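Page 42, continued from yesterday. The earlier attempt failed because a stray header line got pasted into the input along with the sequence. Redoing it now with the clean sequence only.
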Amino acid sequence: MQLQPPPNDMDYLIVRGGRKLKGAMKVSGSKNSALSLLFSSLLTDEYVEFKNVPDLEDIKTSSILLELSGKKIFTKGSEYNIKTISEARPEIPYELVRKMRASILMAGPLLARYGRVKISLPGGCAIGVRPIDIHLDGFAKLGAKIELESGYVKMSSHRRLRGGRIALKFPSVGATENLVMAASLAEGESVIDNVAREPEITDLCDALVSMGAIISGAGTNRIKITGVKKLVGITHRIIPDRIETATYLIAAAITKGKIAVQNSAPSHCRTVIEKLKESGMKIEIKNTTITAVWQRPLKPVDISTSVYPGFPTDIQAQWMALMSSIKGRSVMSETIFENRFLHVAELRRMGADLKVAGNKVFVNGVEKLSGAPVMVSDLRAGAALVLAGLAARGVTKISRIYHLDRGYENLEKKLSSLGADIKRHKYEN
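This time it went through. C-alpha cells are written below.
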C-alpha cells in the first residue's frame, strides 16, 4: 500500500433540516478499538484476522503504517487479514503521526518486539495538548531508555523489557493500551494502576489473551500482566462503536424521530442512555438493538464529562447541539480536555445561545436553530454540526468534513437511509 495524499479537504455537506428521522441503522465497529487492535498485530509474526473493522480514514492511515512496518493487509469488506512479510522498521515518520495521533500506539508493540523504536512527537491538536508523557513514564518503568531528538522520541532496551509497577497520573486510554501491549512481552509481572476502564481496553485485553497473553483486571482500575515470550495469531471481532451509537440516538432526539440502532452494545452506552431518558426520550433495548423514540417536548439536562463509565467527552459536542435545540437552560462541563469548545462559535452561527465560562458552557435553548455555513474543527464537533443541521430551519453547509471521515463510516448514507436530506459535494475549480 502506497502512502496516500491527505484526504480531500474540499468536500462539504449540504443539510436541509426539519425532517424527522425514522428507521433502523447498523452501527459500525469501534474506531478506537480497531486502532489499538490493528497495531497489536505487531506483537506477533503469525497471521491475524480482525472482523467488523470500520471503513475510516484513520483505519486507512493505520494500514499504511502497518505495511511500512513489515505487514501485508488483505481486506474483504470489514474483514482485515494481516500477514507478516518482513521484519518491522521500528520508525514511525512525522508525516503519518501528524495525521493521526493514535500512531503512538505502535510504540509499545515495536519496543516490546524489537527492543527499539523511533517515533515522531505527535504535537498538539485542535481539542487539547494531549501529551505523551504518561506513555513515556510507563515505558521507562518497564526498563526502556528514552531520548528526545529533533522532534522524535527514541526508546530502546538492551534486553527484553522487564515487568514493573506503574501508576498512571491520569487514566489515559492510549497510555493504558500502549503499556498493556508492551508488558505482554516483558519479562516478569507488571501491575498498572489507575488505568482506563473503557470497553475498548477490555476488547484489546480479550484479543491479547486469545493471542496467549496473561492479563487480568481489564475493566477495573488495576491491570496485571505476566509477560510471555511469544504471542500467536488470532481471529477477533471488534466491538460496536459506542460513540457512533450515542450520536445516532441523539439524532433521534434532535429531529423528534425514532431510530433503532442495531448491532450495538447497550451496556457500553448506559450513561448517555440515562441522560436521554432524563430528557424525556423513550429508550427501548432488545438484545443488541437500542431504539430511541421522541414522544413529547424534551427538557434540558446538564452533563459533566468524565472518564468511563462517566459521560463521554466524545459526546459533549453532540449533547450541546441537542440542548441548544431544547427550550430551557442547561450546563455542559468539560473535565477531560482543556480546549474542547471550538464548536461553540459554529453553533452560535446557527442561532444557538451559548456562553463559555472556563470549562463550562451555559446553554439557553432556542425554539429553532437556523441553517448557516459552518466549519468543522474536529471529529466530534463535526458530528454536532451535522446534528444541528438536521434540526435547523433551512440549509446548512458544513465544510472541512474530512474530520468526519476519520470517525463516522458512511455518515451521509446512513442518515439518508433514515430520511435525512444530506448530500456530499465537491468544490468545483
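Notes: The mean pLDDT is 93.
Reminder to self: strip header lines before submitting.
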